[in-house]
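Hey L., structure's done. Input below.
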Amino acid sequence: MRVLETVARHSAGVTDAEIARQTHLGTDRLTPLLRMLRREGYVEQAADGSYVTGTALSRLGSTHGHDQALRTQLQHTLDRLRDSVGAAVYMSRYVDGEIHITQCADSAATPAVNEWVDFRSAAHASAIGKSLLGQLDHNSRRDHLARHKLARLTSRTITNERLLLSRLETQPPTVPVLDLQEYAVGTVCAAVPITAGSTVGCLALSLPVRHAHRLRQAADRLNRGAAPVLLSLAI
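Output:
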């Protein structure tokens, strides 16, 4: 955000050297950050090499049509992540006590998982659900599980509430949550948290089980690629 604020203050453009001076960021951090901001359309580079505000930042910074602009920007990012990780990618939020899949990027080559059981009723079995529940406090988790019973969806599904709560408590926040055929036979998934303010959310991906050997690498790449999503939500 400091980089964007610096660029926004200089309507005539600002050099990377001046951005570095004002933000106290070294070249090793600033260069890839500016590259990401250019790719996402938040800044543009003028012919003289200076940086100016990009169209994406202008759209998101406007109160008129902000919601649609945010959805469009997020879809652009999800599509790019889908192609980068080679898997269907999902964005989800926990709102009013329920799980909501808000956006998805899939394709013929990277199909979305078949939602054979409503995700709202399968938080205990899905990577999305466990990532979202893991960001709640203990009482909120208990409340959710009291409203949605732990049904056995596959032979791998955790149906013991005490065991599930224990695993949620011990899940490191920086480590992707995995679903190894717990929600659906033939599908593996991973999810990473994207908490923006008080909103609980996550990014997730799904793969056919024949590509399970790629799951951890894809999850790590998804985690590294989450920054543009967080940035869009913060603007």
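Strands lie at 43-45, 51-53, 88-95, 98-105, 177-180, 187-193, 200-208. The first strand starts at residue 43 and ends at 45.

-- N.
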